[in-house]
């Protein structure tokens, strides 16, 4: 506290109203220049790296110092302890206030969510399924076409394909898995 400890800034006399605000402003500029960075580092450590919040709290600390500029100017050696005490208390108050509020939740950007009636999404999906159907076995493809495209029940698909119902169920299960795997490879290409 080089310039502050010398007592260079003295409180002005009551009969000099114009000098007092100028002296207080010069004193505060001196305090801000000397303590801004150290207070920011102190608060950043205290707030576990939250630099934006630390910067806000440094400003709050200096605002309180401005409000008490006369008392601080009267006793310059006590400026640093006063600033650090106020900064610590401001940080504690800010942390308590955040704990009292419910946590902030980020909502998805509703403009970026796909519309359910989006025709292009439907076209792309149909194209991807068609490509993937060409990559799975003929038996799996036949079961999927019967059950999902033609809307056949297990019994109807079994009758049309000439295979037992259990085989239709089994092939449908494995066909869907194969289709998902095939679609995953079509999406990346």
TrEMBL record:
PROSITE patterns: SIGMA70_ECF (PS01063). Residues 1-20 are annotated as: Disordered. Keywords: DNA-binding, Sigma factor, Transcription, Transcription regulation. One of its GO terms (biological process) is DNA-templated transcription initiation. Residues 32-99, 132-179 form the RNA polymerase sigma-70 region domain. InterPro entries: RNA_pol_sigma-70-like, RNA_pol_sigma-70_dom, RNA_pol_sigma70_ECF_CS, RNA_pol_sigma70_r2, RNA_pol_sigma70_r4, RNA_pol_sigma_r2, RNA_pol_sigma_r3/r4-like, WH-like_DNA-bd_sf. SUPFAM superfamilies: Sigma2 domain of RNA polymerase sigma factors, Sigma3 and sigma4 domains of RNA polymerase sigma factors. One of its GO terms (molecular function) is sigma factor activity. NCBIfam families: sigma70-ECF. Belongs to the sigma-70 factor family. ECF subfamily. This is RNA polymerase sigma factor.
